[in-house]
């Protein structure tokens, strides 16, 4: 069971450490390092609490493997309908972003280093087929693969940070925001970068509904990204000037552009190897975690069997829609992350808060310490509403967009 706790924490951490690893330094270049640090801590606290709340709600609804099922038990059809929309939109959008980012990185790297030009669609199909195969096998395979990839990713991060930190220019970290209001505009993107909550129902089932294992897995899994984001942002934003990062953010294929930019700055084969592997592994672990949660949700909704044929059918439903989005909108990497925050707020904060309120009304006895905190739930709901309003203001061009 201890191995499962470690594996679950790494699945949660790996789910967050994907597109956020690329988006963080680009967004930080626009808002400045110190405001970004405040946003990191704020979103870590909000994400950790919401993850624990999701876990407790799922534990209170035995027999369910997703928030869709829990919402049906506690909130009826209206709650289940809202849950279905959010649960579909969020992971589908994120998977599309990961496919787009991974395919763009693959194409950019091959073109830059080997002068090989692959069709964007072909790369997207290859990336999707590879990760779909891992998930079709079993959840345990995702655990084992993620555990190995995460350890390798940490090794690459340690190597990369060790190479970049001695070259950090403090002046780069003290740059001012490029425009007023841009810090608020970054809030939805930062919250999405800590978006692991859709994976929590699968973790609850995987850890046999044992809170002594679930709670540490959520806390450890959410804290690891905070530490890694901080080191990563210092290493990247401390060696590349603000103007270069902003140009990368506004260009095509920001994933490959950031990798190539850091490689050219370092001028070292070690930096080149580390940054390329790190970008690949960051996207891979995040893709696996998000896709696993979506896979389990669709399996429950469509009542697919656990056999190979049943899992294959679920995989087709899981991966074809985001693949189509990646094929038809290949430049949607950064933009979709901000809009995904709206669905994430509904899924990770709004619904769990409503379900916790329902559970307290039904029975106050035996309520968990996490659910029996109305003040914290009100604060979380207020923060979630603020994130939604900010993203809507960005869409209405009241606030400047990040990317």
Task: Quickly describe the structure.
The protein is mainly α and 403 residues long.
Describe this entry's structure for a reader.
The chain has helices spanning 2-16, 19-31, 33-59, 67-114, 120-137, 139-164, 170-173, 182-192, 200-206, 211-237, 242-250, 254-266, 269-301, 308-328, 333-362, 374-395. The chain is mainly alpha-helical and 403 residues long. It has a single domain (2-395), classed as Amino acid/polyamine transporter I. It is globular, with a radius of gyration of 20 Å. The termini are far apart. The model has no long low-confidence stretch (mean pLDDT 81).
Notable traits:
amino-acid transport; 16 helices; 0% strand; Trp_tyr_transpt; Aromatic amino acid transporter; mainly alpha; 403 residues; Amino_acid_transport_2
């Amino acid at each position: 069971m201890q191995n499962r706790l470690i594996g679950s924490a790494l699945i949660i951490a790996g789910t967050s450490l994907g597109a956020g690893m690329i988006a963080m330094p680009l967004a930080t270049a626009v808002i400045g390092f110190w405001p970004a640090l405040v946003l990191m801590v704020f979103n870590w606290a909000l994400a950790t609490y919401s993850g624990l709340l999701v876990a407790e709600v799922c534990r209170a609804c035995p027999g369910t493997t997703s928030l869709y099922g829990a919402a049906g038990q506690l909130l009826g059809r209206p709650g289940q309908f809202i849950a279905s929309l959010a649960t579909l939109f969020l992971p589908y959008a994120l998977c599309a972003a990961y496919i787009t980012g991974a395919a763009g990185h693959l194409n950019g790297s091959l073109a830059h280093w080997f002068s090989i030009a692959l069709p964007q669609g072909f790369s997207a199909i290859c990336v999707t087929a590879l990760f779909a195969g891992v998930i079709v096998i079993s959840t345990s395979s995702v655990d084992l693969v993620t555990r190995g990839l995460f350890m390798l990713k940490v090794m690459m991060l340690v190597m990369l940070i060790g190479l970049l930190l001695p070259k950090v220019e403090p002046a780069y970290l003290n740059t001012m925001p490029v425009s007023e209001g841009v810090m608020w505009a970054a809030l939805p993107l930062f919250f999405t970068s800590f978006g692991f909550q859709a994976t929590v129902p699968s973790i609850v089932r995987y850890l046999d509904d044992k809170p002594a294992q679930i709670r540490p897995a959520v806390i450890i899994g959410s804290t690891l990204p905070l530490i890694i984001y901080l080191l990563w942002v210092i290493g990247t934003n401390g060696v590349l000037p603000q103007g270069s990062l902003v140009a990368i953010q506004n260009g095509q294929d920001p994933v490959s552009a950031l990798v190539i930019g850091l490689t050219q700055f370092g001028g070292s084969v070690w930096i080149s190897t580390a940054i390329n592997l790190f970008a690949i592994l960051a996207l891979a672990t995040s893709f696996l975690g998000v896709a696993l949660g979506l896979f389990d949700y669709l399996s429950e909704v469509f009542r697919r069997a656990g056999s190979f044929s049943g899992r294959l059918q679920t995989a087709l439903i899981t991966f074809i829609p985001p693949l189509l989005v990646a094929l038809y909108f290949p430049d949607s990497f950064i933009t979709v992350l901000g809009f995904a925050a709206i669905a994430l707020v509904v899924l990770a904060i709004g619904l769990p808060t409503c379900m916790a309120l329902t559970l307290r009304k039904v029975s106050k006895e035996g309520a968990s310490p996490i659910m029996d905190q109305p003040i914290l739930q009100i604060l979380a709901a207020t923060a979630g509403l603020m994130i939604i309003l900010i993203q809507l203001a960005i869409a209405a061009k009241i606030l400047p967009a990040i990317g």
